[in-house]
Specification:
473 residues, alpha+beta, CD59, Phosphorylase Kinase, domain 1, Transferase(Phosphotransferase), domain 1, 5-stranded antiparallel sheet
Length: 473
């Protein structure tokens, strides 16, 4: 329907699906130029008596019609519109007539802004995911992807540094926690379920954010993934509105830590060699630097102990808890030391760490300290070896020389001043495997760090022993 519109221009014609309107009004007692406009159907409210089509006594005379150019009539304001007659409005109603459309316009404007912001957020989110790793579209999680599929993707995604961040978030936010399996100074460890498979979820307290971030960062180092290093799956920060939980998701190993395992079970000579060789293999890979664009920096653990080594179902070890690890950047010859105040476990500290003579600017110093701790772990394993029906109770290193929670001063006195080490029994000489283990330990415990064995040398020695003892790994 066409109508005249003289509100802006006397010669303007507009089209509408609603009504044509002509109106004239009084201002300061004088009749003003009338105007004509078109009103869209959505604005004809309420039905039957639209507010746009009402008159106000002595002030406003409005006429609405519904045919082409029907608003071409000339209107006059009657001098005496009867009071209370339908269709006439007083000053209050006039204010409502004017304010109503303004309010409606503001409401529509606000709704438009909110819709625009919603679409903008969705667009930015999609853009951010694409920026994180545009080459990993094939890793979006299909509904039938299992935990085993995910592990395979981790191994074949190209970088060797784990899944893209958006996939990590997807996994972490669909895990169902089952039971708590451990506690530490950082927080708690839970067994969780994800698509029919078990995972371990390490939940850090919010004050341990640096440790959480550091461990996740180290685990995602290029080419770090190895069968004897705990398999990292995902890291995520989950905000439930009250506090923030920091999650680190990894492979689940039902035997728990080496500390727990040795407390519950003795091991055969074959079992001892498998544990010792796999621990050396994991540490050798951690220490090794691989040069090239897809290379790997050397990493030192700095808190190696039986509680930070896990036992897999096949009786081999996986090194865990990399929150204190340091990386060596070969190109710049710098050491990336974690920015937190934690120190390692006092009982396992090397002499040079206890007496503070360690050269913090030389990366090999940190690797040598790891080797000292590995020697203590080997002592724990060998004590539990059942050879000829003989094995000893589980004990921590230096159990007979220091209290259960020794201070650095107490450890320094025993290790540095008195130069004492755990006792290696003479009867171990009767068995080749235990004799070799005892020799390795002593060569890990030298006061001079530079004289100690390397992880690779230990791995080779134990590999030869496994062949001699016909150990199947």
């Amino acid at each position: 329907m066409k109508t005249y519109c003289s509100y802006l221009d006397s010669g303007y014609v507009c089209e509408t699906d609603g009504a044509c309107m002509a109106s004239t009004y009084h201002t300061n007692g004088q009749e003003e130029q009338q105007f004509r406009i078109c009103i869209p159907r959505v604005s004809l409210v309420p039905p039957g008596q639209p507010i746009y089509c009402l008159s106000a006594e002595g002030l406003l005379n409005t006429h609405c019609c519904y045919t082409d150019f029907c608003n071409s009539i000339n209107l006059q304001i009657p001098s005496g519109i009867a009071e209370g007659k339908g269709g006439s409005w007083g000053p209050v109603e006039l204010v409502a007539v004017i304010a109503g459309p303004v309010f409606l316009f503001c409401l529509l404007l606000i709704m438009g802004v909110l819709v625009f912001q919603h679409h903008q957020r969705n667009y930015n989110h999609r853009q951010r995911l694409e920026v994180e790793d545009p080459s990993c579209d094939h890793l979006y999680l299909a509904k039938d992807k299992t935990l085993q599929d995910l592990i395979f993707d981790l191994s074949t995604s190209g970088s060797g540094s784990g899944l893209p961040l958006f996939v990590q978030r997807t996994v972490a936010r669909t895990i169902v926690l089952q039971e708590i399996i451990g506690k530490g100074r950082f927080g708690e460890v839970w067994r969780g379920r994800w698509r029919g498979g078990d995972v371990a979820v390490k939940i850090f307290s919010s004050r341990e954010e640096r440790s959480w971030f550091r461990e996740a960062e180290i685990y995602q180092t290029i080419m770090l993934r190895h069968e004897n290093i705990l398999g990292f799956i995902a890291a995520d920060n989950k905000d439930n509105g009250t506090w923030t939980q920091l999650w680190l998701v990894s492979d689940y190993h039902e035997h728990g830590s080496l500390f727990d395992y040795l407390n519950h079970y003795s091991v055969t000579i074959e079992g001892m060699i498998k544990l010792a060789l796999s621990a050396a293999s994991g540490l050798a890979h951690l220490h090794m630097e691989i040069l090239g664009t897809q290379g790997k920096p050397g990493i030192a653990h700095r808190d190696l102990k039986s509680k930070n080594i896990l036992v897999k179902k096949n009786g081999t070890c996986a090194i865990a808890d990399l929150g204190l690890a340091v990386r060596h950047e070969t190109i710049t010859d710098t050491i990336d030391i974690a920015p937190n105040q934690r120190v390692g476990t006092k009982r396992y500290m090397a002499p040079e760490v206890l007496d503070e003579t360690i050269n913090m600017k030389h990366f090999d110093s940190f690797k040598c300290a790891d080797i000292y701790a590995l020697g203590l772990v080997y002592w724990e394993i060998a004590r539990r070896c059942n050879a000829g029906g003989i094995h000893e109770d589980y004990q921590l290193p230096f159990y007979d020389l220091v209290p259960s929670d020794p201070s650095i001063e107490e450890m320094r006195k025993v290790v540095c001043d008195q130069r004492l080490r755990p006792n290696v029994p003479n009867w171990w000489q009767s068995y080749e495997a235990l004799r070799v283990m005892g020799k390795i330990m002593r060569e890990c415990w030298y006061a001079n760090g530079a004289a100690r064995l390397t992880a690779l040398r230990i791995k080779k020695t134990l590999s030869q022993l496994s062949v001699q003892e016909d150990v199947k790994i």
